[in-house]
Amino acid sequence: MKKISVIVFITSAIGLAACSDIRRDPGSVYMPDMAYSRAYETYAARDSSLFSTDEKRTDDKIFYNNMPVAGTIARGEEIPFPLKKDAPGDTTNYIAAKAITNPLPPLDDAQMKEAERQYLINCGICHGPKLNGNGPLYKDGSGPYPAKPATLVGDVKYESMPEGQMFYSITYGKNLMGSYASQLTRDQRWAIIHYIKSKQAKTVAPAVTDSTASAKK
């Protein structure tokens, strides 16, 4: 019993001695860059003082702006768009977008239904479920938005608009319409354009048929 008491006393003494001086320094680390992450200043402005004369980063100052590398394509964004947003007052790329065709093949029934769903969620509030520009925000002029949005079906301007130009507008925004690049993937944007064009075709086709029939008479 006496031996047990001595052992307990010695063990307790060693424990107290070990805890009396807490060591904050872990000592030498073999590969510190792998053990500890380098802290970045998010959104820090680029400053030449952060770099040495040969533009190499120094050990204690790092430039980091949280932006992806140029040309990076996000997961699920398999179809890159080759045109950048025009500078204010410039329409060069907007006009060039006319030559870009829809890279997605024609949609099957399930895909068309999904495209319609995405349209109603993201576009219908302005352009209306019937694509006539009479969505809940306009509501025959009694809604909170005073200007009528574009009439996608029933206006020759938009019925004749090339798909690439539509994509440009959805991606970067146009006039009072903002960008939907953060809400819709590229595939979803192109699919919605397929849906819009399918609705436009249904209104254009009868007119062509009638004129053709008249010409035969």
UniProtKB/TrEMBL annotation:
Which PROSITE patterns does the annotation name?
A: CYTC (PS51007), PROKAR_LIPOPROTEIN (PS51257)
Which Gene3D superfamilies does this one have? Cytochrome c-like domain
Q: What's a single GO MF annotation on this record?
A: electron transfer activity
Q: Which terms are listed as keywords in the entry?
A: Heme, Iron, Metal-binding
List, alphabetically, the InterPro entries matched: Cyt_c-like_dom (IPR009056), Cyt_c-like_dom_sf (IPR036909)
The UniProt record lists the keyword Ubl conjugation:
no
User: Where do the Cytochrome c domain residues begin and end?
Assistant: 110-200
Is this entry keyworded Coiled coil? no
What protein am I looking at? Cytochrome c
Taxonomic source organism: Panacibacter ginsenosidivorans
Q: What is the lineage of its organism?
A: Bacteria, Pseudomonadati, Bacteroidota, Chitinophagia, Chitinophagales
